[in-house]
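Anyone? Bumping this.
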Amino acid sequence: MKTLIVHAHPEPKSLNSSLKDLAVSTLEGAGHQVRVSDLYAMNWKAVVDAADYGPDASSPLRVARDSGRAFEAGTLTPDVRAEQQKLLWADTVILQFPLWWYAMPAILKGWVDRVFTHHFGYGVGEHSDTRYGERYGEGTLAGRRALLSVTAGGPAAHYAARGINGPIDDLLFPIHHGILYYPGLEVLPPFVLYGTDRMTEDDYPAVAEAWQQRLLTLESTEPIAFRRQNFGDYEIPSLHLKEGLEPAGRTGFGLHLLG
Amino acid sequence: MKTLIVHAHPEPKSLNSSLKDLAVSTLEGAGHQVRVSDLYAMNWKAVVDAADYGPDASSPLRVARDSGRAFEAGTLTPDVRAEQQKLLWADTVILQFPLWWYAMPAILKGWVDRVFTHHFGYGVGEHSDTRYGERYGEGTLAGRRALLSVTAGGPAAHYAARGINGPIDDLLFPIHHGILYYPGLEVLPPFVLYGTDRMTEDDYPAVAEAWQQRLLTLESTEPIAFRRQNFGDYEIPSLHLKEGLEPAGRTGFGLHLLG
């Protein structure tokens, strides 16, 4: 495998950083190639602005159009171009982060906002009566796989089906489906650690073993079975799921899973 | 009303900025007080790091604990303290932003990550057999109201109940419930504009009229009926919704709504 790890925690001695380091050593030890984008260590610029698009920034700025023009012209900033190249190099992408306010830390959201430009992350492919661009299962990153490795401060019960925070699969759906599957990545079931606010060093060996087990079985892990957009399940152009495809009673985000 | 508008778009001539300007003039014209945190204009620091906690940053950094200590000691950075003061001043909070990758732009997520510190945004109140801290309907910001004003590039159909992006209410749930309701804000139904990628200036008068209508009726708008945590609907400490409280067949995020 060729794995890109995108890491988003400010403290090198944190649990998140330990999990990142363990992923590097475990994958390299198994003969895989690994590259790391340690966003804090890189002092990653988190914020989209006109400076991202160089001479292709218009005034007034139009983020989607200008980012696509700069992508096509090769005038995106070097930091963004480097990340796009890493994504094209990789066959597996791991995002390592703490769940802050039920979402990515800002620095990682800024990696998505800046790297997934028009014509790279979205606005790819043609529209017709049977296709609505290349997205949700097709796109620039098709043929690659992605995995979230996430730490959550609160206990697992709060993220269960009836838990007050909402089910973890639903909380992660906007990332899994909306960010990763959208440009074509297949998404593996996430590695989630709960209750990390109360974890101690004594808990780490079991955590490390579980994480290594996931890392060493990535190639045989089945991705989440999201429905592909352009293969008959959706009306075009409304992109409503066709009636009757879902199991009885299923609603919400779960509609977009097969079977 | 005393309204705080937190605005997150890099272009002063954008639709988002026009909606922010219109909110200021409309609310002030109706005799209300308004303050604006224009995050791009303020060059808002988006990224949590040790510098946020001054002398209370420990090594290794522990974000939750250190942010709480700095909050208690009054040693948070002036930019963060100013935002906390604005939130305490306001009775109504409007977040104005484009939906980028089904979530907030990084600069706004960084406002949440940095301003909603431990002992301000979370880690408030005592735990007992009948209470699990003050959150989800109680907390520092209780008694205030919040509203998202969001632009989405794609068409409304894609965000409908069967739409491929997922239902808008579910996509916004992590913000509505997990970020706003958590520290006590009551959340009004969002103002969402769809299809903004294809909007032209000709569309603006109708948009402006709809937005003004929402702004001038904020005080009489009913908030989303999220269930309060500590008032009998949830088991303590699992925080599972008690069996049988939901309408038949309801699952997922919708469990946490009354009736």
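Late reply, but here is one note on the structure posted above: The mean pLDDT of chain A is 97.
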